[in-house]
Amino acid sequence: MNKDKINSLVFSSIIPLIVSNSILGSGFLYLYNYSNKSAIISMIIGFIISILPIVLIFKVFNMYPNLTLTEKLKTIFPKWIYYIINTLFIIISFSLSALIFFRLTVFFHSQFTGSFSKYIIAFILMLSTYYLTSKNIEVITRFSIISSFICLFAFLFDSASLISQVNLNNILPLLTTNSKNILTASLVFSTLFSGPSFLLLIIPKNSIVNKHKLKKYVIISYLLSSLSLLLINVITLGTLGIDLIKVYTYPVYVVLKKIRVIGFINSIENLTVLMWFFILIFTSSLSLFFSRSCLIKMLNINKNKIKTLINITMNLLIAFLPLILFSNKSFFDKPISAIIPVIIYLITYLLIIIILISNKIKTKN
Predict the structure, then answer these.
(1) Torsions phi, psi of 135, nearest 5?
(2) Whole-angstrom distance, CA of residue 254 vs CA of residue 235
(3) What is the mean pLDDT of residues 243-248?
(4) What is the C-alpha R_g of the chain?
(5) pLDDT tens digits for range 317-354
(6) How many helices (H) and strands (E) does the chain have?
(7) Most distant CA pair in the chain: distance in Å?
(8) Shortest CA distance to 188 belongs to which of 18, 26, 353, 20?
(9) Which residues, 6 or more positions from 160, have their beta carbon under 8 angstroms from its beta carbon?
(10) What burial class does residue 110 get, using C-beta atoms within 10 Å of its C-beta: 0-12 exposed, 13-18 middle, 19+ buried?
């Protein structure tokens, strides 16, 4: 692969990782608590609703194919508006990166290393994000395809191992709540599912080779992601039941821990943790790379020493600032915590619409 050139398949491998990050955590908790067994219906409706924002994001992606998002903004808007919108994207992507990193740190601390300081765990995890964000986008996307294949293997193994434990009585009947709750959960789910796709805008379309296959690969990636998340939902609900699900902070992880394999591996728990690690660390790194790239281009920074200093500073901030600000993590263990990324993505949708309308007006003039 040539420098800064990305294969269509590699580009598409980013999608399953970024769309899963919020769903596997607070997204499922919100679904189960607000739509109960009807979470399956809410997910299906949510997938359909998410088509529109994804299409809008890819309309921006197709504009000015030689340019990154920051360069597109500079082309479309007057200077002062460009600075405002680009700064908003910097804040949004940085906040998203910090939120994901915080969730990963808290998860590792609560499940495995309660005797270790959260700050030590955060520092160790930060080494991964620093390494990825210090590279170019081509290296980051190569990491995505490796992560996607590992996650796919883990998912298929987990599903095959757990399908026999599914109890249909835990799933049926599907309609156990009112239509308002189902629709609300659907809207939240669709936002969490489609929202992270804006991160793809950091990659110029013309940096992708074999573009004639891109549309097909992207559609397949979104479909596979949808079906995988739906199957995870069915297995979790069918194995634990709605009452037990509401007891656990990480119901999906609890279900996956039930797997036992014969031989020298006594538990598939480590494989499941690895899957979660890849999903969260990649999405956090891509979000931070997005934020850093927008900042560097906006300030027109060319010196490598300054770029490195910015990268170190931003990595330290996402690792430790949330731990300082949210010393009481109880809020993030609750289903309502899903509203934070929802707000982030809704602001992103608004910016995407403003970009599309402004570009149309500019083109007409």
Answers:
(1) -100, 175
(2) 12
(3) 79
(4) 20
(5) 999 998 888 766 555 556 566 788 889 999 999 999 99
(6) 15, 2
(7) 69
(8) 26
(9) none
(10) middle
Distances (CA, A) of 265 to 93, 268, 271, 332: 39, 7, 10, 32
* Exposed e or buried b per residue across 188-215, where buried means at least 16 C-beta atoms within 10 angstroms of its C-beta: bbbbbbbbbbbbbbbbbbebbbeeeebe
Residue ranges of domains in the chain, CATH in brackets: 6-364 (1.20.1740.10)
- Whole-angstrom distance, CA of residue 20 vs CA of residue 224: 11
Q: Please give the backbone phi and psi of residue 50, each rounded to the nearest 5 degrees, phi first.
A: -70, -15
The pair of structure tokens assigned to 247 is 């007891």
CB count, 10 Å around CB of 14? 27
Distances (CA, A) of 350 to 5, 92, 356: 30, 12, 10
Helix axes 269-299, 118-133, angle to 10 degrees: 60
Confidence of residue 264 (pLDDT cuts 50, 70, 90): very low
pTM for this entry: 0.89
CA end-to-end span of the chain, whole Å?
A: 40
Confirm if 291 and 314 have CB atoms less than 8 A apart.
yes
Rounded to whole angstroms, the Cα distance separating 184 from 34 reads: 8
Classify the C-alpha dihedral 197-199-201-206 as positive or negative: negative
SS3 category, 247: coil
What amino acid is encoded at 41 in this protein? I
Residue keyed to tokens 């088509």: 51
pLDDT band of residue 261 (cuts 50, 70, 90) is very low
Which amino acid, residue 226? S
